[in-house]
Design brief:
Shape: globular
Number of helices: 2
CATH topology: Lipocalin
Largest sheet: 8 strands, antiparallel, barrel
Distance between the termini: 70 Å
Helix content: 10-25%
Length: 144
C-alpha cells in the first residue's frame, strides 16, 4: 500500500512540473523582435517600439547563423557585419543553442518556441521574449 501511494505522489509531482513548449526547429527561421527581457533580481526591461531584430537561419543539419538587423524609420533594413554561428542540439527534451563568435562561446536554452513566439534563457538566467516579425508586412507598406 505504501509503495502504491508513493508511486501516486511521484506521478503527481512529475505531472506538475512545467513543460516546455518546443515547436519544430523550422520555426526559428526568420526575423524575431525582442519584446522584453527578465533579469534575475532586476526589473523587467521592455523593448516596445524597438527597431532591432534578430535574423535566424537554420539549415537541415541544425547549424546556422544569427545576425542583428536594424530597421530605419523609413523601413530600410541594415544587417550588422557580425554574426553568430549557432548549432542546435536536443538534449533530454530541451533545445539547446550553442553560439559562437570570434570573441566568445556560450549556450542558450529554448524555453518556448512556436511559429510566432520564442523565449530563450541564457547562462546568466536572463530570459528573452521574442515575437516573430512579419517581414511581408514591411514590404506591403512600400517603405523598403
Amino acid at each position: 500500500m505504501r509503495i502504491s501511494m508513493f508511486g501516486v505522489i511521484i506521478l503527481f509531482m512529475i505531472s506538475c512540473q512545467e513543460k516546455k513548449e518546443i515547436g519544430t526547429i523550422d520555426h526559428l527561421n526568420g526575423y524575431w523582435q525582442i519584446e522584453m527581457a527578465e533579469v534575475p533580481d532586476v526589473v523587467v526591461k521592455n523593448y516596445k517600439g524597438g527597431l532591432k531584430l534578430d535574423y535566424i537561419e537554420i539549415s537541415p543539419d541544425s547549424t546556422g547563423i544569427r545576425k542583428k538587423v536594424k530597421l530605419s524609420l523609413m523601413g530600410k533594413m541594415k544587417t550588422t557585419p557580425n554574426q553568430e554561428e549557432i548549432k542546435l542540439l536536443e538534449k533530454e527534451g530541451d533545445l539547446i543553442i550553442f553560439c559562437k563568435t570570434p570573441y566568445s562561446e556560450w549556450t542558450e536554452s529554448v524555453l518556448h518556441l512556436s511559429s510566432d513566439s520564442l523565449v530563450i534563457s541564457n547562462q546568466d538566467d536572463k530570459k528573452y521574449y521574442y515575437s516573430k516579425y512579419d517581414i511581408d508586412q514591411l514590404n506591403e507598406t512600400g517603405t523598403q
